[in-house]
Amino acid sequence: MIAKLQGLYAITDEILTPDATVVVQVKIAINAGVNIVQYRNKTKSDDAVKEVCKALLVLCRENEIPFIIDDRPHLAQELGADGLHIGKDDMSLKEARAIFTKGIIGVSCYGSVKNAVDAQMNGADYVAFGSFFASPTKPHSGIVSKSVIQKAKAALDIPVCVIGGINLENIAEICEEKPDMVSLVSALFEGDIKKNVENLLKEMYKV
């Protein structure tokens, strides 16, 4: 049984969580309270990351949480991953679903509620909005108004994820808008992962 799409959503990073250590790092994050894991690597081939994705899938299955692969529909299909995430430069939802036939598909919608409504109509299982703050891992992302979250929740039936520059200082502020999921990279994986997750969860559920 896979848990619901809610809570702290960890996204891996080629520098902060290199393939050599990512499984250990993700295990610490899950044990500390992360609810969803996405493997994100924009440079290596599917073959080069297949074994690490298999290991992460096993880890997530053991903990009954969704394992999502970013922008690799063929690999997600081959491994039987729980989900796939796509952005505006990856592929259309229709193309993604043709390859990844079963499972969760999440779509990045940046600041567009219209795109999110279209994504829901086309079968998306969740949508992500952001960046809401300056992001160390995506420094060129545009900043989106927090008002998008309420508008999206009013217009959609599927879960809403927030991403982009969210950290210990601002997570409570973004959680006032009641997103279903909060995605983190740097604030989660830089330094002491266990302590980071515990502190983030405390702030997140203050609201």
Describe this protein's structure.
The structure is a single chain. Helix 1 runs parallel beside helix 2 (46-62) and helix 1 packs parallel to helix 9. The longest helix is centred in the first third of the chain and has 17 residues, at 46-62. This protein has nine helices and eight strands. It is an alpha/beta fold and 207 residues long. 42% of the residues are buried. Strand 1, helix 1 (22-32) and strand 2 (36-39) form a beta-alpha-beta unit. The chain is globular and about 40 Å long. The chain has an eight-stranded parallel β-barrel with strand order 1-2-3-4-5-6-7-8, surrounded by six helices. It has one domain: TIM Barrel, CATH 3.20.20. The chain has helices spanning 22-32, 46-62, 73-79, 93-99, 113-121, 147-155, 171-175, 186-189, 193-204; strands at residues 7-11, 36-39, 67-70, 83-86, 104-110, 126-129, 160-162, 181-184.
